[in-house]
Amino acid sequence: MKIKHIDHIGIAVKSIEEGKKFFADILGLKFEKTEVIEEQKVKTGFLPITDSELELLESTEPDGPVAKFIEARGQGVQHIAFRVENLDEALAELKEKGVRLIDQEPRKGAGGARIAFIHPKETSGVLVELCEKG
Ligand code: ZN
Q1: What fold, for 3-132?
Q2: Residue 79 C-alpha to ligand 1 middle, in angstroms?
Q3: Shortest CA distance to 1 belongs to which of 61, 85, 57, 76?
């Protein structure tokens, strides 16, 4: 598979409004916009840095995956996303190699991306997202 670059780093926060203050006001990164991904029970906010982004993640429901992450580990880096050229090919390759996946098939991510998560047991505990953007 062809990994192009680190697409974004996902950071779990209790509040995007609060969380973005440091990155936008102190570091001067541009805060782009928020987007709600209903299926994931999450609101996302992106701050681009060259060809990567920070993705702030705020749970929209008390039982959402981001809320559970914060409950267990506190706020902080939740996942790293690699941009791939072809997500279907990448998933097929990983399945062939016997790698455990959270998503067997691509699902819809923020900004119209197609995404899939690899099981953290395979990645030294880091939740890795693969994403493909048109
Ligand atoms: Zn992500």
Answers
A1: 2,3-Dihydroxybiphenyl 1,2-Dioxygenase; domain 1 (3.10.180)
A2: 7
A3: 85
